[in-house]
Specification:
With about 290 residues, this protein is mostly beta strands. The protein has one domain: Jelly Rolls (Sandwich), CATH 2.60.120.200. About 0% of the residues lie in helices and about 45% in strands. The strands form three sheets. Strands 3, 5, 6, 7, 8, 9, 11, 16, 17, 18 and 20 form an eleven-stranded mixed β-sheet that branches. A seven-stranded antiparallel β-sheet has the order 4-10-19-12-13-14-15, with no helix packed on it. Strands 1-2 form a two-stranded antiparallel sheet. Strand 5 and strand 6 form a beta hairpin. It is globular.
């Protein structure tokens, strides 16, 4: 999920690889921590919780989550401005709810340039400045609006805490899951780095075999080690690839985004607004 108007939809084909066999945890190791039952690590032992938000109550934890207002999403003819407003970012019903909605009176959108306004607003949050981590297990349980009309784009993604001197995409981006309403039964992981120069490469930096039905709850998981990325949807592996690129030798922070789409998924008015992406929980382990 790129933090500009452009929203990248990258497609490919992957022959899915099976998950490694996990060794049994030590009997002396606690089986439960702040994230609940501790998942088994592929090489043995158990993951340890470093972040857990179940979005209970009716208030976003502002000490952890920042509501982003510096970006836009969509196309020049239909773009949404990210705003900090409860109509597009709220916690209720046991979930974080991020929406895109149309407003009656167009609103100024500084992120789109001086003098620009739009009839669409959207919600996105991140843990920038509050939490980041290099390597570990990152997971979110998400439900996207049930429609096959084009125009809706949801993402659970990671962005580097330190950008360094390299421009995007060489600076790095980890898309744990991107979903598009025009492809209503798929989730697309994507790794952005210098590999982008060669485009979408199935089995290397993306996959199209990750089954995730819109309108249903889906659990998206990344297990990231110094040598390997393993992406799962509802426990099923869909992309296993190396993680040795220089872009991934640093800490990243989680982002959750409800967006308007682009290209084949560009918003054309058929998808009824408002729409909402529900997030049941976000958990990270080390």
């Amino acid at each position: 999920m790129r933090r500009v108007v452009t929203v990248l939809a990258c497609l490919g084909v992957l022959a899915a690889a099976g998950p490694p066999t996990a060794a049994s945890p030590s009997v002396d190791e606690p089986s439960v921590d702040a994230c609940g039952p501790r998942p088994a690590k592929p090489g043995g032992g158990l993951w340890s919780c470093t972040l857990d938000d179940d979005f209970t109550g009716n208030t976003l934890n502002r000490s952890l989550w920042t509501v982003s207002t510096h970006f836009v999403t969509g196309t020049p003819s239909a773009f949404a401005c990210y705003v900090d407003d409860p109509s597009v970012v709220n916690v209720a019903g046991g979930s974080l709810n991020l929406s895109v909605r149309r407003v009656v009176t167009p609103v100024p959108c500084p992120a789109a340039g001086v003098g620009n306004s739009t009839s669409y607003v959207a919600g996105t949050v991140s843990t920038v400045g509050a939490f980041s981590q290099q390597y570990g297990r990152f997971e979110a349980r998400i439900r996207a609006t049930d429609t096959s009309d084009p125009g809706l784009h949801e993402a659970f993604w990671l962005w580097p805490e330190e950008q360094g001197l390299l421009p995007w995409p060489s600076s790095g981006e980890i898309d744990v899951s991107e979903t598009y309403s025009v492809y209503p039964d798929r989730s697309y992981p994507y790794l952005h780095s210098t590999m982008d120069l060669l485009g979408a490469r199935p089995g290397v930096n993306t996959a199209t075999t990750c089954v995730a039905q819109r309108g249903a709850w889906n659990t998206y998981t990344l297990e990231w080690s110094p040598t390997l990325f393993e992406f799962f949807v509802n426990g099923a592996p869909c992309l296993v690839t190396g993680s040795g690129d220089a872009a991934f030798q640093k800490a990243y922070f989680p982002i959750l985004t409800q967006a308007l789409g682009q290209y084949a998924d560009a918003y054309d008015g058929r998808a009824a607004l408002p729409v909402t992406m529900n997030v049941d929980y976000v958990r990270v382990w080390r």
